[in-house]
Amino acid sequence: MNLGIGSAGMPPTVAACQLAVDDLDPAANLAAVESHVRGLPDAVDVAVFPEYALTGFVPDDRAAEVALRIDGDEIGRLRDLAAARATALVVGFVEVDGDDLYNTTAYLAPDGDAARYRKRHLWGREAEVLTAGDDLVTVETPAGTAGILTCYDLNFVGDSAELVDRGSDALFVGGAWPAAYSENWRLLLRARALDGVRWVVGAGRTGRREPTDDASATDAVAYAGRSMVIRPDGGVHATLDRREDDLVADLDPDTLAAHREFVGSVPE
Question: How many whole angstroms separate alpha carbon 5 and alpha carbon 155?
Fold first, then answer.
């Protein structure tokens, strides 16, 4: 069982980086992500960003125009930044691979290792443009074994249970949750922490998406923000409102071990 040890032998420190995203503007979004990472305390071991943080998303052909490759220059810059800052990055984007587009979240470790999770449960008109992923993903992180989920994936208890079976000590979740349903975001983050007896770090998009030139293709949306770190007992450890900010918190492995001992769910 790996409960996680952060830098210098201390409990791992995570950041949920809450930002507004410019749809269809990867250059601006990449600059914003880099700025947030450079502004984090040196002690941060893992920084989690919202869904589509690098590209934004609109449900039409323009998504293909801004889609990124996992081996492209933008991801390469973030891999270099992860190494320079000794901080793992969890960042979402529209990925192109062959003829398919995916809602992808990359885990970029400081040592150069990388993994990607492709959202399995597409929401609404995402399914008109994107291909759903096939596999659940876990990665080894300073916070222990972590599963990666994206926004609407939080609704699917079976996925959560499989990640429990894989020994997840934490979930990293990028979201773009509408403000009108922000209580559901809060509820589901807490539920996934409690049903897995694990830490959950949720990074939410804030700001607004305004209609672009084709107003029929994308409606205005106000996003919830409300990034959170949730304890293994489902309690809220730390949270933000809707401002752009970075939520920094320690994930104490003793807290995780104590809750698992209490409910008798310590993985073997």
Answer: 30
Q: Which domains, and CATH codes, for the chain?
A: 11-262 (3.60.110.10)
Return the structure tokens found at 78.
């973030």
For residues 56-80, average pLDDT? 97
Secondary structure E strands in the chain? 13-18, 46-48, 88-97, 100-108, 114-118, 138-141, 144-150, 170-175, 199-204, 208-209, 221-222, 228-230, 236-239, 245-250
**Residue type at 2 in one-letter notation:** N
Q: Residue 47: which of 174, 197, 233 has the closest Cα?
A: 174
Cβ atoms of 63 and 100 within 8 Å: the answer is no
Query: Is the pLDDT at 193 greater than 70, yes or no?
Result: yes
Share of the chain above pLDDT 70, in %: 93
Q: pLDDT tens digit string along 102-142?
A: 999 999 999 999 999 999 999 999 999 999 999 999 999 99
Structure tokens at 116: 């990607």
Could you tell me the sign of the dihedral formed by the alpha carbons of 163, 151, 24, 46, in that order? Answer: negative
Give the pLDDT band (50/70/90) at residue 214: low
| 168, 198 Cβ separation under 8 angstroms | yes
Among candidate residues 82, 112, 78, 113, the one with its CA nearest the CA of residue 92: 78
Confirm if 129 and 112 have CB atoms less than 8 A apart. Answer: no
Alpha-carbon span 259 to 264, nearest angstrom: 8
